[in-house]
Amino acid sequence: xxxxxxxxxxxxxxxxxxxxxxxxxxxxxxxxxxxxxxxxxxxxxxxxxxxxxxxxxxxxxxxxxxxxxxxxxxxxxxxxxxxxxxxxxxxxxxxxxxxxxxxxxxxxxxxxxxxxxxxxxxxxxxxxxxxxxxxxxxxxxxxxxxxxxxxxxxxxxxxxxxxxxxxxxxxxxxxxxxxxxxxxxxxxxxxxxxxxxxxxxxxxxxxxxxxxxxxxxxxxxxxxxxxxxxx
Amino acid sequence: xxxxxxxxxxxxxxxxxxxxxxxxxxxxxxxxxxxxxxxxxxxxxxxxxxxxxxxxxxxxxxxxxxxxxxxxxxxxxxxxxxxxxxxxxxxxxxxxxxxxxxxxxxxxxxxxxxxxxxxxxxxxxxxxxxxxxxxxxxxxxxxxxxxxxxxxxxxxxxxxxxxxxxxxxxxxxxxxxxxxxxxxxxxxxxxxxxxxxxxxxxxxxxxxxxxxxxxxxxxxxxxxxxxxxxx
DNA sequence: ATATACTGTGTATTTTTTACACTAACTAAA
DNA sequence: TTTAGTTAGTGTAAAAAATACACAGTATAT
Lengths: 231, 231
Fold this sequence. Notes:
homodimer; 9 strands
């Protein structure tokens, strides 16, 4: 390969906004940095892209290194490229969000040395983050809200079997507003991609609710691609 | 600045999908390459990001160099990072689309040496493009379609004064489907951000239509930010 | 048995979307 | 000045979707 391209002292990185849902709250996975710059600050998990991996592969790898999770739903949402966003050099970062099921997950432990800690934090109670990560986070949640309207992403955050109330609480947490119970259920069921199970919630100290699951096959049959009506 | 970051033989680039609207058709500005690789192929205009400019600045600059236009509406829509997407080295490209008013514009002439020609091509009649530019283009038009539903981007493509029929033709070109005339007008006018002018179309060989303009001030008053209903 | 807590359901009203076709206005040409 | 040609501009009824709204039923815990 001829060196026809100019060389920069520059690098690509990936930053991940990892969303989870727990106890009725939307959470995001942060790491506490153990190295300069921004030692002791909270930050979004991220890392540099290797020379021989695509950015999608890098995103998958980085998420795995941090959470031990594979096959997560990840989506690129924006690229941040201010000149001074990284104090040590020119780094353009491609930001992804990932949606994961917290429940039943073994504790997330960062494998990388640069983090001394990792924690789920409520999106309503975030500290100031390292680098431009606060801005990245803000962008991510806006994109997430919009995508919720036309893609079945909520189900990535819930356990496989869930109640309609759990689903509603999740929508409310993402959209940050209350929804009407009857109207919500009517609309969700009208789509036809929720499968009612012969099974009920367990371990609650009140009437147990029916469990449902998201029927991906039906979803794709109904909407070739998304929930946008096209007229 | 300490060299704490690993160095890659790598670079960032910007590629621009420049949309225009003319003669009832949605067009895209392509350049014919004059250099290897992909000599003589059609491609999206693009270039490398300099070490001291943000990606937004780079996008603005590159568009200017190619079209002589400034202050265009540009929006980042996706970043492409396959390892082998560029045959000469690792190049991650951030793709933007720009919406420009073709009409009354002086001819676009590429200023860069690597292009021997630039031309507006109908989006329905594109050749196979250099690199992964066909894929980039496909993504751009999908994003454009979606954004049309919640952002007032159509007006960037029309002259300042336009008729409702022109607006409708543009929507039809972007969405690639016919719309009902009465319903379209009713809906557009119901938003309240179109200002009817005391002026009519000129130079047509039939009844002249009323001219309208997009009232940005009203738009922002009505929708803080976008056209999405939030209930 | 009773208190507690959440589940699950229907209807009426309003709003939005859709389908649909003709006359009026203007220009150009004869 | 008449006529042909072309687009502008307009309303209504029906269907569909969104909204607002409250209580009885069922399971658990004590």
